[in-house]
Amino acid sequence: MENTKIIQKKAGIRKLAAMKTETAKRIQPVFSFFAKMNIMRRHRKQKSGGFMEKIKTIETKEDAIKLLNIALEHEWAVSFEYTIHAYSMPKGKFWYEDPVMKNKTDARAQTIQIGIDEMYHSLQLGIIITQMGGTPSFKTDEVVRFPKIMDNLKRDKMTEDMVTNLYQSAEFAEGTFPKIQNMVLNISYDEVRHSEQFAAMMEAMKKEGAEDALCFQSSPENAEKEEVQLLHEIMRLENELLHRYLKHVILFSEHQDLSQRLFKNSIDHMRHWDKNSGILVKMGDVVQIENAEKDAEGVEKSHTPMPDLYPGDDRLSALETLIPAEESLVSKYEKLIPLVPEGDIQEQLKLHLALNREHLFTQEWLLKNARKIKGIE
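The structure assignment produced for this chain is given below.
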C-alpha cells in the first residue's frame, strides 16, 4: 500500500495538472490574439525593413531616383494586393460610410478602386524615373493574404500609413527637384485618403459583428476541374501582360503614339484580370497569389507575385516579344470557352478573347510598320 505522503503527492500533481489545463483554456484566446499580432508585426518588419527601405534626405538625382524606386516597388505590390483582397470578399455585403465621398460605399468595390489608384501611381513613378535617366524597378514588396477579411484590411491600412510616411518624411534640399517634391506630396495625400477609407471599412465591419468574416476559399474539387485550372493560367498571363505593357508604356513614354496604343492594351488586360477574378468566385474558387506559400495559420505570402523582369528594351524587341505572349493567351481562351456552359460567363470570356485578338492584330502591324522605317527606336 502507498503511504500517506505518496498519496498526497500524487493528488497534488493531479490538482496542478488540472490547474494548468484550466489556465491554458483561459489564456488561449489571449495567446491567439498575440500570435496574430506577432504575424502582423513580422510582416510589417519584413515590409518596412527587408522590402521597403527609407531614404530621408534628397540632395542628388540619384537620391531622387532611389526614393521613387522604393515607392514604385511598394505601389506595384499594393496595386495587386488590394485587388487580391477585394476579390477574396463578397460583393455588396460589407458597406461603410465613406469619410471622403460622404456616401454609403461597398468595401469590396472601393478596395478595387484603391488598387487601381496605386497602379496609376506606379505608372506615374515609372515614367518620371525614366525621364530622369533611371531604370524603373519591377520588383515588388511582399504580397500577403490572411484568412480573415478584417486582417487584410488592417494590413491595407498599415501599408498606406507606411508609404505615407515614406513620402512625407523625405526631406528635399532647398531648391532641388521641386516638381518631384510636389508629386510625392500629392501622391501621399491619395494614401492618406486610402488609409481613412480602410479605417472606415474596418469600423463598419466591427459594428456589424463581422470581424471574423472569412475570405473566399477554393473548393477542393476545383483542383480536378480543367476549366478552373485553365482560368487560373489565363489569370497569370493577363497579369503578366498587364505589367509587360506598362513597362513598355514607361519605356516609350516620349513616343505618344506607341505609348498610348500599348497603354490601351494594358488597361484591357487589367479589366480582363478584374472580370476573371469575379468569374472564379462564381465557379466556387478564388484568385491565386503567384508563388505564394501558406503557413499553418492559413496566411499566404509571396515575395514574387509577378515577374520582375520583362523582355524587350527597344521598340522592335518589345513588339516582337508581345506577339507570342498575346498568341499564347488567345489560344488558352479558345481552349477554355468550349469547356464553360453557355451563358453570362461564356459570353464574358468571348469578349476577352475578342479584345485579345484585336491586340494581336495591332501588335503585328505595329511591328511590321516599325520594320519599314530605318532609324526608329
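Interim note for the steering committee: The chain has a mean pLDDT of 88. DSSP finds nine helices and seven strands in the chain.
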